[in-house]
Structure to design on (336 residues):
């Protein structure tokens, strides 16, 4: 409960001086009957009803306090109509699925880079409940694997099916510029204010006809921010399991060839950020930071309805006055 006009409550401060004044009047009031000697009356013990005579004054002051509270318009919340306005972010995840993503350095010799990236990306998607998210995969070429959608269950199923070079259907290589262009094409008709590309790769641009920085400049014109993520061991080499037809399987090391300058320049051009992930924990932290940076705007346009309660206070005040009137004319009546 709250008061619509709380300034009226300041009048409650007048009650205490008023009580004091009434008591002062009572004590200094001249008696209607006069006696030559009051000694005998002082020996009489006051009755219990006389001791409770102040209840009349209390009821009168309580009625006044209740009327003041009624004037302050007490209200209770009766109903709240919610009309949340949500403005989502349009996101394209561009995921490198080239042959080098087979390296097992992010989760050492347990999962390859692509599997770790898919797992972390899936967690990111699950947290973006009100955003449209799409998926572009790339190696030597780039393809839209899933257009932007709010049906994240479908998107997650498609993400599960992403594999190295998509089972050989995409030529090997790393077409960073072309992947960015594909993502921009998907965002071309977006009407949202916030549009971002999250591009994850472990290599340098060596395929496709589009330069990554040229694609970044186009993104800047379109108002699209690019967050680039470079993955790979910081040691400079990464373990890879290789099957040999005669010698069987075995571990070998491949060099980590990551063009951090290009990835950083792409992010800087568009107002995004470049991140370096040396292991699975770092990659999770990067996606969590992007999730915090790109927040969905939710505006509560709810309407609050209140129920006026002053009638109850007035009724209680009238009840107190009635009880005070009855008691003052019967049990606590003053004669004459």
């Amino acid at each position: 409960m709250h008061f619509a006009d709380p300034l009226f409550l300041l009048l409650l401060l007048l009650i205490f001086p008023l009580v004091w004044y009434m008591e002062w009047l009572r004590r200094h009031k001249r008696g209607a009957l006069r006696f030559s000697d009051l000694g005998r009356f002082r020996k009489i013990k006051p009755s219990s009803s006389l001791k409770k005579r102040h209840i009349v004054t209390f009821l009168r002051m309580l009625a006044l306090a209740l009327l003041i509270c009624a004037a302050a318009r007490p209200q209770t919340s009766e109903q709240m109509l919610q009309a949340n306005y949500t403005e989502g972010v349009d996101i394209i995840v561009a995921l490198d699925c080239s042959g080098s993503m087979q390296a097992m350095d992010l989760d050492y010799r347990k999962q390859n880079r692509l599997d770790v990236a898919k797992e972390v990306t899936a967690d990111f998607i699950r947290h973006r409940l009100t955003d449209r998210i799409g998926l572009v995969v790339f190696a030597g070429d780039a393809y839209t694997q899933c257009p932007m959608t709010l049906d994240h269950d479908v998107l997650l199923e498609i993400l599960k099916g992403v594999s190295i070079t998509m089972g050989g259907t995409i030529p090997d290589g790393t077409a960073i510029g072309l992947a960015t262009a594909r993502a921009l094409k998907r965002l071309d008709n977006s009407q949202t204010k916030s549009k971002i590309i999250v591009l994850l790769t472990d290599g340098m641009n060596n395929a496709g006809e589009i330069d990554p920085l040229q694609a970044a400049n186009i993104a800047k014109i379109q108002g699209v921010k690019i967050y680039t993520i470079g993955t790979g061991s910081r040691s400079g080499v990464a373990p890879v399991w290789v099957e040999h037809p005669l010698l069987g399987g075995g571990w070998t090391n491949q060099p980590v060839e990551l063009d951090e300058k290009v990835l950083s320049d792409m992010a800087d051009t568009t107002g995004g950020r470049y991140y370096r992930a040396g292991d699975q924990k770092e990659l999770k932290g990067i996606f969590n930071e992007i999730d915090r940076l790109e927040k969905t705007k939710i505006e509560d346009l709810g309407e609050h309805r209140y129920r006026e309660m002053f009638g109850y206070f007035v009724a209680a005040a009238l009840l107190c006055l009635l009880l005070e009137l009855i008691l003052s004319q019967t049990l606590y009546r003053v004669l004459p």
Remarks:
- Residues 86-298 form a domain with the Rossmann fold fold (CATH 3.40.50.410).
- The radius of gyration is 40 Å.
